[in-house]
Amino acid sequence: MAQIELYGLEVFGHHGVLEQERREGQPFLYDLRLEVGDAGADDRLEHALDYRDVVAAVQELSAARRFDLLEALASAVADRLLELPHVREVTVRVRKPQVALPVEFSAVTVRRGARR
């Protein structure tokens, strides 16, 4: 069984509970792990998961909806990726590097998993 991993996918979004976050937006970083069975083992793109489709799905979802919570964003991305051909299981980690907290930090992270 093959796993495809895309790490550090940066997608701009207008997610968060603060009005400024929703108005101005900010980058979100996605780490994706997708179980695809034997898809692509025969070295034919038409039998594989196209990475461009993965990226487009995340970008389209981020542009189409606004989420208050990272948990809901991660869940929606996981659900959307499970709709892609060959994807049997997915783990989505969303990092929000510019969250407003009163301490120094590198990012707030939420991870969600889902399977078909």
Notable characteristics:
116 residues, alpha+beta, GTP Cyclohydrolase I, domain 2, 28% helix
CATH topology: the name is GTP Cyclohydrolase I, domain 2
How many helical stretches? 3
* Element-by-element helix/strand order: EHEHHEE
Question: Helical proportion?
Answer: 25-40%
Outline type: elongated
Mind explaining what this structure looks like?
This protein has 116 residues and is of the alpha+beta class. The chain has a single domain, classed as GTP Cyclohydrolase I, domain 2 (2-Layer Sandwich). The chain has three helices and four strands. It has helices at 19-24, 51-64, 70-81, and strands at 2-13, 26-37, 89-96, 108-115. The longest helix has 14 residues, at 51-64. The two termini are 15 Å apart.
Task: Briefly characterize the structure.
The protein has 116 residues and is α+β, with helices and mostly antiparallel strands.
